[in-house]
């Protein structure tokens, strides 16, 4: 709760974190399809997605992401969630973890263990057992000896930032959680189910990197499609508590097709001069990313 309740939006500034629960707006998540890498520019992908009516697809609630889909008997072990840069994949993992920690959802899960590939990259030349790796990141787990007796979720966020080989074809099978090896071997065996097969795995990635994981290792693919039009309005009304100001901003966004498309996803690049006149004498709260 301490780690994920306070977040920074856009360009981080000291003392300007926000409570995730105050602004979080449910994103549109749907079952996805893996295929060839789409090399089209991501802005074009966003525009295409923004034109597709949400009602054509069945949304998946964040708290239900590991639950069986209609017609399925068993929950998925390994889930991959794809989405373009800035669409909100990392925020989803934070919200999932925070809701679990606060006891709001997924009461059957005993441990939620969030990792980022950016963090794991730093251990590329080191060796750990799975137990040692968990102790390295989560010192509170040092008293746990038998993870196979618990329901555990590993979150692996940002596959597109992975600098490890992830050599599924040549890495040896590794089943001992107490025996040390490279982080790459630990990850490939964890994902394909040879190491701690009872665990659930959630991987997030931009679409272009999804094929780093063999299709046979992924039980279900989901896609973050961003905000629907009603969700865009909900988000801005949460971020701007003054109703007149929120209404003016929403109206302004609707007049610009380019802004409307960029705001299909939450962490957009929003031109500063497009909102300065709407929020006089105070810093903008719009989500921004450096060009």
UniProtKB/TrEMBL annotation:
* NACHT domain boundaries: 77-209
Q: Does the keyword S-adenosyl-L-methionine apply?
A: no
DNA-binding among keywords: no
Matching entries from SMART domains are given as: FISNA (SM01288)
Q: What's the short name of a Pfam family annotated to this entry?
A: NACHT
Could you tell me which Gene3D superfamilies the record lists for this protein?
P-loop containing nucleotide triphosphate hydrolases
Q: Where is the signal peptide?
A: none
User: Which UniProt key words apply to this protein?
Assistant: Leucine-rich repeat, Repeat
* InterPro entries found in the cross-reference section: NACHT-assoc, NACHT_NTPase, NLR, P-loop_NTPase
Q: Which stretches are transmembrane?
A: none
Q: What is this protein called?
A: NACHT domain-containing protein
Q: Which species expresses this protein natively?
A: Muraenolepis orangiensis
